[in-house]
Write a structure and sequence with these properties.
2 copies of one chain form a homodimer. Chain A is mainly alpha-helical and about 160 residues long. Chain A has a single domain, classed as Tetracycline Repressor, domain 2 (Orthogonal Bundle). In chain A, helix 5 crosses helix 6. The longest helix of chain A is centred in the first third of the chain and has 27 residues. The N and C termini of chain A lie far apart (about 45 Å). Chain A binds a DNA duplex (30 and 30 nucleotides) through helix 1 and helix 2.
Chain lengths: ~160, ~160
DNA sequence: CATTATCAATACGGTAGCGTATGGAATTGA
DNA sequence: TCAATTCCATACGCTACCGTATTGATAATG
């Protein structure tokens, strides 16, 4: 899934990789689609909180949390997220799950900026800019060389985002 | 291609859609891969300059050009770009073409910020932030509702990006 | 007018994948 | 112990593709 996308999740390949036959697969899952739905649900549970929880656990004020967020995201392997996002262009269930995750994350970013004292519109615009940028970095994936990740120009980016305006 | 990704570009489907048989297809193209390579090359030519040229044609100073850029990108249909980006995760040729396009676009953004008097590191950080954000908006595609596009909070975002610091 | 180039149809063999039917082994529980 | 449940294998039919070989049909050209 992460390596080659949802399309590459094939019953027979999977069975072979596990050293069983597909006769077995169809005992555990109704069909291929049931497997994909299960994967999707597992991802959604994990993706919603994984990063946010890490940031919260790390503590600090809102500015510190934002720094933590950039740093964590720069290290995260975005392949699974990317695969789901691609998948969501075709599949309504995936679309739905992804939309929920996006909303949750955006809302979190917004609270960070609100916590710095920004007005709702200002916080919202900043949250969207940052989230879009992070998604962009995810999307471009390995193409974003080290030294070119957002987290590595935080000394420039953060003051920009945080300054009152 | 734009609607369902490179995977959905199938010889027989294409032939049927055109009202011919695949016997004909194989006269025009050596094989499916040759078609994809041709598509890729056409895209690269178009994608490199399409938007930049519009912005330049519109004129104005660097700040005005940046505004124009956001506005145009908000209207653009990013599906083909998205399809290529997805494809590039699997295919080296696509990866290569995409990397070139990304570099070209990033370089253009950088010149805009340099033109505003920013230092190279400052311009570079801003260019990357903006480009990542635009890619993010592209990637999220139709999920980014009207009213939530970057171009619609330019009154907040632009001053942030442009302020000296 | 004959020939050649261009474009398309038909027909074939091959692979990857889905899902079903059915039988067999191992485990568990009354 | 013996029947039910659980897990897996084998074998099958079916579809969507790929690519090739061959044979027209029409248009351009010497």
């Amino acid at each position: 899934m992460a390596a080659q996308g949802a399309d590459a999740v094939r019953v027979e390949r999977l069975a072979e990789a596990l050293g069983v036959t597909k006769g077995s697969f169809y005992w555990h899952f109704k069909d291929r689609n049931a497997l994909l739905e299960a994967l999707l649900e597992a991802w959604q549970m994990q993706a919603t909180y994984a990063i946010i929880d890490q940031v919260e656990a790390n503590g600090g004020d809102c500015r510190a949390r934002l720094t933590t967020l950039f740093t964590i995201v720069a290290r995260v392997d975005g392949r699974l997220d990317r695969a789901i996002r691609t998948w969501a262009e075709q599949d309504p269930s995936a679309r739905n799950a992804l939309d929920q995750v996006d909303s949750r994350r955006l809302a979190y970013l917004e609270t960070l900026f609100l916590g710095m004292g920004f007005s709702l519109p200002a916080a919202n615009a900043r949250a969207r800019l940052v989230y879009h940028a992070l998604i962009g970095q995810f999307t471009m994936g390995p193409a974003v060389a080290h030294g070119a990740r957002l987290s590595e120009s935080l000394d420039i980016i953060l003051p920009m985002l945080i300054r009152e305006g």
